[in-house]
Design goal:
By secondary structure, the chain is mainly alpha-helical. The chain has a single domain, classed as Fumarate Reductase Cytochrome B subunit, CATH 1.20.950. It has helices at 8-16, 27-49, 54-77, 84-87, 91-98, 109-130, 148-181, 188-193, 210-228, 230-251; strands spanning 19-23, 195-199. A two-stranded antiparallel sheet has the order 1-2. Helix 3 (54-77) packs antiparallel against helix 9 (210-228) and helix 6 (109-130) packs antiparallel against helix 7 (148-181). The longest helix has 34 residues, at 148-181.
Length: 276
């Protein structure tokens, strides 16, 4: 419900109702949010610049991958309002929000759908970039795992999805401006400080512990290792070395198997001919 729809009495009652301050967004979630903003911004800027900036573009894509995986795990193990089970809406909840009947703390139903869409698109961008190949200055770290045709097709999808990403970012920013200007609800401040004033009837949220954070970080680090392609390079290097060693073993007979060449009187005083 918009503030402009309230009567004067309702506004006074709302302002005079008991309130309390809660930790709405925990520190790991806030670090994820601003880290994703920095990584996506860097990826967009370097992707537009191209050329020598593509190396940094790849690093930004890896950061996005690690952050998204962290967010997915934290969405199951994190604090109350970071969990998907808390804010992912069903159809009835979305309809109630559209009719102005929804009341809650954290992401509203449409904001939750926007969050899911953003996570999905940036994850798809990171994946298609990892397998991509623009045939000019960039080859993704996992491109060797797929055919060249598939890699190029994924690169084309990568270029198309960025337009969807631009639209979602614009929608996200517009929603922040709308809530700040018209609903007098500053969405940025809680994402910086973590704190938000809410009605006293709201339950104090559960804060996740070190165990949940450790698991989320370990899974995120594992995803970075896989996406970096280091294991692909190491595997290819080992295979190449083994093939070369096997080839050398077949091409060069063992010294004891080489038949001796007897010198002839005509060849005495001359350098002995090769054994082959």
């Amino acid at each position: 419900m918009d503030v402009s729809d309230l009567t004067r009495t309702e506004v006074i009652d709302a302002l005079s109702a008991p309130r309390k301050r809660i930790r709405l967004w925990d520190l790991p979630l806030r670090l994820f949010h601003w880290g994703l903003l920095a990584s996506v911004g860097t990826a967009i800027a370097t992707g537009l610049a191209g050329g020598g900036w593509m190396s940094l573009h790849a690093q930004a894509g890896l950061a996005v991958m690690g952050l998204v995986v962290f967010r997915l795990v934290w969405g199951g193990l994190g604090s109350t309002y970071a969990r998907f089970a808390t804010f992912v809406p069903g159809p009835a909840t979305v309809w109630a929000y559209v009719k102005g009947q929804w009341q809650g703390v954290g992401h509203n139903p449409l904001g939750a759908l926007s969050v899911l869409a953003l996570l999905g698109v940036v994850a798809a961008q990171a994946l298609t970039g990892a397998f991509g190949n623009d045939e000019i200055s960039f080859t993704g770290p996992l491109a060797s795992l797929v055919s060249e045709e598939r890699s190029i097709a994924l690169t084309n999808l990568h270029h198309q999805l960025v337009k969807v990403l631009y639209g979602l970012i614009a929608l996200h920013v517009a929603a922040i401006v709308f809530y700040t200007r018209f609903k007098k609800d500053n969405l940025v401040r809680p994402m910086v400080t973590g704190w938000k004033d809410v009605p006293a009837s709201v339950k104090t949220p559960h804060q996740a512990g070190w165990g949940a954070l450790t698991i989320s970080l370990v899974v995120s680090a594992a995803s970075l290792y896989v996406a970096s392609g280091v294991w692909v390079t190491a595997s290819n290097g080992s295979s190449s070395a083994a093939d070369a060693e096997a080839h050398e073993g077949h091409a060069k007979p063992a010294e004891e198997d080489v038949p001796a060449v007897q010198a002839t009187p005509a060849a005495s005083g001359e350098q002995k001919a090769p054994a082959w």
